[in-house]
């Protein structure tokens, strides 16, 4: 993929830090009230677009209706978000019902930008849509039956088929959750469902012992697919969401080669610890440049605002390999 970090105001690891990833020092990059109707803007996805970036943003309004909005940026930090939600036309189906939309991911495959999100259809399931220009959008068949969340496409076909990670769930604040992969010849019919990875044993890695879900679109590296994911522990004060990473086999991504035992980022800053849902880091996008060895991770903080963290691609891969479960 072309250098997607070129306009980002990169920051080096802060002096004195040993952490594998570090936060942008002006976080959060998108305020909860960035558009007139919003209560919160978080769990959002960005991609390189034209001479800058485009994105699909989860904006909950002040009635706390969840919907997704297009946005544009020159530098990946300062965003202009549309004030109206995305209005989808029929894509490969006329059945484009949606009670709500949230937690989008975006990736370019072949000739267009594909979007997945959690789509309300008799409960949460995986919605799919596409756009060529972030102006007109088309909605396709839902990928799966309810209940499912965290549908994340791979950025290219694998063995001739589209591939998607997902996390079968329930209709509420699911107290379980493992990551599966499914394949499709046409983005409409999905099958060949395989388990990729399950929660970790409490005594080995408790931050990811209650549920896990895929985050950004996986990145192909020399070691395989780098997958950031969220991991959850159920505490006496509720769920706590942290960020880990795994490396999946390039040709058989249901095979996990490495998986981080320690988290890469966990709630620690005020904007992560307080908000509508405290103690949540929820990554939905990553920009990277292999040549420059740089990565920018976009994550929702406390279900309220959108933030960015940086890391060196090679160091993240080494960290996952050297600290694998
Ligand atoms: C999940 C989803 C996410 C949210 C998270 C933490 O179930 O609803 O959108 O960020 O819970 O509240």
TrEMBL record:
<dbReference type="InterPro" id="IPR023296">
    <property type="entry name" value="Glyco_hydro_beta-prop_sf"/>
</dbReference>
<keyword id="KW-0808">Transferase</keyword>
<protein>
    <submittedName>
        <fullName>Beta-1,4-mannooligosaccharide/beta-1,4-mannosyl-N-acetylglucosamine phosphorylase</fullName>
    </submittedName>
</protein>
<comment type="similarity">
    <text>Belongs to the glycosyl hydrolase 130 family.</text>
</comment>
<dbReference type="InterPro" id="IPR007184">
    <property type="entry name" value="Mannoside_phosphorylase"/>
</dbReference>
<dbReference type="GO" id="GO:0016757">
    <property type="term" value="F:glycosyltransferase activity"/>
</dbReference>
<dbReference type="Pfam" id="PF04041">
    <property type="entry name" value="Glyco_hydro_130"/>
</dbReference>
<keyword id="KW-0328">Glycosyltransferase</keyword>
